[in-house]
Amino acid sequence: MLKKERQAFILHQVNLHNKVLSSSLCTEINVSEDTIRRDLQELSDEGKIIKVHGGALSHSFNQVYFPSIGVYSQNQKQVIAKKAVALISNGMFVLTSGGTTIMELARTLPPQLKATFISGSIPAILEYMHHPNIEVIVIGDKVSKNSKITVGSEAIAKIKQVKADICFLGTNAIDAEHGITDNDWEVVQLKKAMIESSKMVVCLSIAEKVNSVQPIKVCDLGEIDLLITELPADDPILLPYINAGVKVL
Amino acid sequence: MLKKERQAFILHQVNLHNKVLSSSLCTEINVSEDTIRRDLQELSDEGKIIKVHGGALSHSFNQVYFPSIGVYSQNQKQVIAKKAVALISNGMFVLTSGGTTIMELARTLPPQLKATFISGSIPAILEYMHHPNIEVIVIGDKVSKNSKITVGSEAIAKIKQVKADICFLGTNAIDAEHGITDNDWEVVQLKKAMIESSKMVVCLSIAEKVNSVQPIKVCDLGEIDLLITELPADDPILLPYINAGVKVL
DNA sequence: CGGGTTTCTGCGTTTTTGTGCAGGAATTTC
DNA sequence: GAAATTCCTGCACAAAAACGCAGAAACCCG
């Protein structure tokens, strides 16, 4: 069998089944693993396949990509994300809501972090999926098209079954008097369940949303452990929250 | 034998078998390897064949095995998707697996279609989410990074709770004798559950996957109701399936 | 017809290419 | 962490290609 012929066969297999194992190829074609590996290397150099440990993948299926441009207040959110990431250590179970701040957190996760992330937010799940060492658990239920998150009794029931080490809530509004509030009834139900199911609750909020109020209440300040904004912890705007017993980062 | 005669013979052989070996040519025509090589070189310079180490290939070989751009076999998949979409009517509950053929189906859904789609495939969910009138139900569980689909006992349990009107399976391999087979154990478990939970099971498969076999069995032909390929229903390659009682579109 | 030229072919040598193997390094996986 | 895969590197060997050369055939033309 000619080299080109072999490579054509490999390419064909990859495109057909979306993945191939070097081992199965080398028994099928009856050549050494080295030859297969060299072929995969060449095809990969030509950009025709994606070489991975143990085989190769087709290029087509792997391209679900999310540009992160145009996010509102992205710089602030990156600051928040960096502070938040520092709270996550290896082996943790992390529960997250949706929202652009959470997305920023997802993109900031260091590649070597090994943790389990649980979420019902489809965009967040996509982002977690791209990380090499993170296990992703999806909360299933009906998708709310507004918030791109799964909502409903099933989702709440599933959340109640877990006990996460830490929970990150993207926050819509926070206020010393009214606590955390939001404007989507179903999302509020979810967040309540998440708070219940976590040892530690962290609110992520850009300073702009601090001291604002929305119609539906999620929880009192007493139920959250940590508030993260892009401001330094001693900023006077945050004082009421410190006084209310919330740690601020 | 004249040079021109020889080259005509070579060209004929190449077009007939899509490949020739220099070594076999030189015994057939009874000239030295050098002569053959020079002939191949000339034919290659004229663009009539593709010269490779050890012999030569025809251009048609390249066309067959190196589809130029985009998702592999996208045209075929679009044909399949159109046939499949025609089976969905308003109000239906639709269960789908993952894979590029399913993605094509998702993109082909007409905007006015009102239906409920249930899936654990993250890329598919994304696609469904963008449609204006489709309700999306997510099957939750751990995400398999290979297949970008949720897998595990929770997912299977959830699938068993539904009774869908129709189920679309992206097929990795189908064969008259071995039925439907696949190469990922967890995905196979899911597909089995999906088949159980649906009134009607439809297999989507490009013709190239027809009559191929993978290591793990999903089900026998008897369990599927419909097979959709890009070929016309009376193509002889599909005859064994019709004989086995599967409807073909 | 015959000498000169061009083309074609085969041979030996040198290079290049393709393949498999052995070992140690890197990685996955449990 | 430890065992098992898989990967990479260098190497050896074989097959094929490239190159130069020389003899043979064909061709041209006076």
Summarize the topology.
The structure is a homodimer of 249-residue chains.
Chain A: H1 3-17, E1 19-21, H2 22-29, H3 33-45, E2 49-52, E3 55-58, H4 74-85, E4 93-96, H5 100-108, E5 115-119, H6 122-129, E6 134-138, E7 142-144, E8 149-151, H7 153-161, E9 166-170, E10 173-175, E11 179-182, H8 185-196, E12 201-204, E13 216-219, E14 226-228, H9 239-243, E15 247-248
Parallel strand pairs in A: 4-5, 4-9, 5-6, 9-12, 12-14, 14-15
Antiparallel strand pairs in A: 1-3, 2-3, 7-8, 10-11, 11-13
The structure holds a DNA duplex (30 and 30 nucleotides).
The CA-CA distance between the termini of chain A, in Å, is: 64 Å
The total count of strands of chain A amounts to 15
Question: What is the assembly state of the chains in this entry?
Answer: homodimer
- Major sheet description of chain A: 7 strands, parallel
Rg over C-alpha atoms of chain A, rounded to the nearest angstrom = 23 Å
Counted by DSSP, the helix tally of chain A is: 9
Give the strand content of chain A: 15-25%
Mean pLDDT of chain A: 87
Q: What structural category arises from helix and sheet content of chain A?
A: alpha/beta
Q: Which shape of chain A, going by the Cα principal axes?
A: elongated
Helix residue percentage of chain A: 25-40%
Strand arrangement, major sheet of chain A: 6-5-4-9-12-14-15
Unreliable runs of chain A: none
* Most extensive interface between two protein chains, with residue counts: A-B, 38 and 49 residues
Order of helices and strands of chain A: HEHHEEHEHEHEEEHEEEHEEEHE
